[in-house]
């Protein structure tokens, strides 16, 4: 009987370790793809641009802060589960640094980034299932959410959403205070470029109005000549010059 229990305990510990590896891999892939980060990792990610510490070390410190919050909430420091969470924080941070050192992604290829994001979601979800299923040590952020939920009487899901929103707001605030350029994705850069072009068109519309209207009339007249009359060399050349002149004049304003 004791041997069977030992085997079950060893199996649970093994599954738990695998869960930590999967979660760490998911976090690193999410960071490497450059297409966003989870709320729990947003604060360590921002802090990595402020202080000379690794992403994994800052993740460990972030978990320590959550452990201290739990100690304040339950008004004790002798809870064994809290000290076990400290071990979880150390292992998770160390594994994140290892993966972060060896995993490289070519961010110039959008397909690789999307695949990394999808694998990140998959491994993070699988890792959390392994960790929660064996029920050994709860990760510190979820422990904080659980304590707040128990004390406030609110549902765990509601507190979790509020907690994630607070993490994101703190990350944005840190970025603004320390003048850190917010990380963006290729899609965001394309969107920003489109908005800039729209703004450019709006500012230049009045200046280009007369030129564009005038050249469009010439262009239409040239098309009419081509379709209604014989396509002589002179007329083709004249039509080409009209179109080329229109492009060149617009380009001068873009400079």
Q: What does this entry look like structurally?
A:
With 255 residues, the protein is mainly alpha-helical. It folds into two domains: 2-183, no CATH class; 189-254, no CATH class. The protein contains nine helices and no strands. It has helices at 2-33, 39-47, 55-74, 80-102, 110-134, 140-152, 156-177, 186-228, 233-254.
How would you concisely characterize the structure shown here?
This protein has 9 helices and no strands. The protein has 255 residues and is mostly helical.
Key structural traits:
single chain, 255 residues, mainly alpha, 2 domains, 9 helices, 0% strand, globular
How would the blueprint of this fold be written?
Blueprint: H1 2-33, H2 39-47, H3 55-74, H4 80-102, H5 110-134, H6 140-152, H7 156-177, H8 186-228, H9 233-254
Helix pairs in contact: 1-4, 1-5, 2-3, 2-7, 3-4, 3-6, 6-7, 8-9
The stretches of 5 or more residues where confidence is low (pLDDT under 50) are 190-206, 233-247, 249-255
**Count of individual helical segments:** 9
Mean of residue pLDDT? 76
What is the distance, rounded to the nearest whole angstrom, between the alpha carbons of the first and last residues?
82 Å
H-E order: HHHHHHHHH
The figure for the number of domains is 2
Report the radius of gyration as a whole number of Å: 29 Å
Structural class: mainly alpha
- Number of strand elements: 0
